[in-house]
Every structure is written in structure tokens, then in C-alpha cells.
Specification:
By secondary structure, this protein is α/β, with parallel strands linked by helices. About 40% of the residues lie in helices and about 25% in strands. β2 and β3 form a beta hairpin. One of its GO terms (molecular function) is catalytic activity.
């Protein structure tokens, strides 16, 4: 295991065992305001990273910009440093009945991007970690969020596959209709790759986003409403990660004596 991350420029001692992955580096600074004793570790290449404490759990927050290739670089490096659970907290486009302002949680994702195939073949499903996802959903309910759960669709081409430019030549509107018919609730550019990379690397990954753009119309949230909603999203994600970390720590303490006893029995 490397003791220093190539791009994130931090070491294993600098990170927690839980991490939030965000696109916009401004969200790292926003998250740092919610953390206790937050320390900014890196700003190089816009991959802003900070570590602090939330409800007693040590959590790292790291930005990747946009798209699956860099999102998986950040996840990969943090996993190599010892981070065991990850939550993507970002924005997504609505599909079907999903409304602007909803908090959308992915149980799985359509693999419409290419990065995940460098980790596992296309036949492998992109599925969230079930336990971590349930913990996030509980945190969202406790915060009174308008919650939608289901399948995301992840793509590489924003203007060619996700955003209707009005040219009528990209087929985006038809794609959204088809996705809605199959029960997809949102689109983004990272979730499926993070799920697959996480499985390949042996870490837990969940994805929870704010529905900030309407896929069919390109309508957006009011900037002030969006900022408040993003702050709520971060609070929910941090609370969920902290709860998961405490549960894992308690389970480890409970199982340790049994493991020691078993070991003595075989001496």
C-alpha cells in the first residue's frame, strides 16, 4: 500500500477511513465549515482535499472536478491510503418523476461511461454498497429530505448524451424518455464508475445527489435554493458516513475478542 498519494499529495496519516467525493472544490470548503478541526491537505490540480471530524468520526472530503476518469483516480488513491467507505455527494439531472430539489440515492447505475471497463468487464453490474446506502437513506429521512431512490444512468458526454442543446440532433430528449420508461431516476457522469471501481478495490461506495437540473427541460434550481440544498446534502452525507464509521468500529470491537478466542483454540 503506498504511503503517499500521487495526485492528492497526502499520506495515509492525513485521511480518515471514510471519505466524501464531490465534484465542485467549493463544496470541500463548504464541508470544511461543517467539520470540526478541518485541515486542507491539497489544492493541486483543483483536487482540493480536507480532513476533519463529524460527530466524532474522522472524514476526508475530496474534489475531483467532473467526470468518471478523475473521480475514480481520487477514489483509487484514497482507497490505497486506507479509506474504506466512500459517498459521492454531488448534483444530478432529473429523469421521469424526479423533481428539482429531490435528494436522489442510487441503488445501482447504468454503465454508460467507459472508465468502469478498465476496472471490471461491462457484464459486471454497477451496484451500491447496500449497508452504506441504507445508512444514508436513514440520515436523509432524519433530516426531512425529499428522497428518491433507484437507478442512475451515468454517461461520459454531457452535451452529446445528457444536456439538450436545442439542435435536435443529439437524441437527448428521446434518451430521457427511454430512461424514464425503464425506471431510471437521474443521470450523472460518475456514479456507475465509482460503484464498479469500489467493488474492484474492495471498498464500500454509495452515491447520493441533489437533483439540480431537469433533464427534459434544462431548468435549474434558484442559486440560493441550490446552495442551501447542497449544504443539507453535505450534512446528510457526513452524518451517514459518521454513523457507518461508528457502526463499523463497534462491530470490530465486538468481534475482536471472539477472534482472539478462536485463535487460542487452534494453538
Amino acid at each position: 500500500m503506498p504511503d503517499h498519494a500521487w495526485y492528492l499529495r497526502c499520506g495515509a496519516d492525513d485521511v480518515g477511513d471514510s471519505a466524501v467525493l464531490v465534484g465542485d472544490r467549493g463544496r470541500v470548503h463548504l464541508a470544511a465549515e461543517l467539520l470540526d478541526d478541518a485541515v486542507v491537505l491539497n489544492e493541486d490540480r483543483g483536487l482540493t482535499t480536507a480532513t476533519g471530524f463529524f460527530d466524532g468520526a474522522r472524514i476526508t472530503v475530496s474534489a475531483f472536478g467532473m467526470g468518471a476518469p478523475i473521480a475514480t483516480v481520487v477514489l483509487h488513491e484514497l482507497a490505497q491510503l486506507g479509506v474504506r467507505r466512500f459517498v459521492r455527494l454531488g448534483t444530478a439531472m432529473t429523469v421521469g418523476d424526479t423533481a428539482l430539489g429531490d435528494i436522489v440515492v442510487a441503488h445501482g447505475a447504468v454503465r454508460g461511461e467507459s472508465t468502469s471497463t478498465t476496472y471490471l468487464p461491462i457484464e459486471y453490474p454497477a451496484i451500491a454498497d447496500a449497508g452504506l446506502t441504507r445508512t444514508l437513506e436513514s440520515a436523509a429521512s432524519a433530516h426531512g429530505a425529499s428522497l428518491r431512490t433507484g437507478i442512475f444512468a451515468t454517461f461520459d458526454g454531457f452535451y452529446t448524451e445528457m444536456f439538450e442543446t436545442g439542435s435536435g440532433t443529439t437524441g437527448v430528449a428521446e434518451r430521457y424518455r427511454d430512461l424514464a420508461r425503464t425506471g431510471v431516476i437521474a443521470t450523472d457522469m460518475e456514479t456507475s464508475a465509482l460503484f464498479v471501481a469500489g467493488r474492484a478495490l474492495g471498498v464500500q461506495v454509495a452515491s447520493m445527489c441533489l437533483a439540480s437540473v431537469a433533464g427534459a427541460t434544462n431548468d435549474t434550481l434558484d442559486p440560493a435554493v441550490r446552495r442551501e440544498a447542497e449544504t443539507q446534502l453535505l450534512r446528510i452525507g457526513l452524518a451517514g458516513l459518521a454513523a457507518a464509521a461508528h457502526t463499523a468500529a463497534a462491530a470490530a470491537q465486538t468481534s475482536a475478542p471472539a477472534a482472539a478466542t478462536d485463535e487460542r483454540e487452534f494453538v
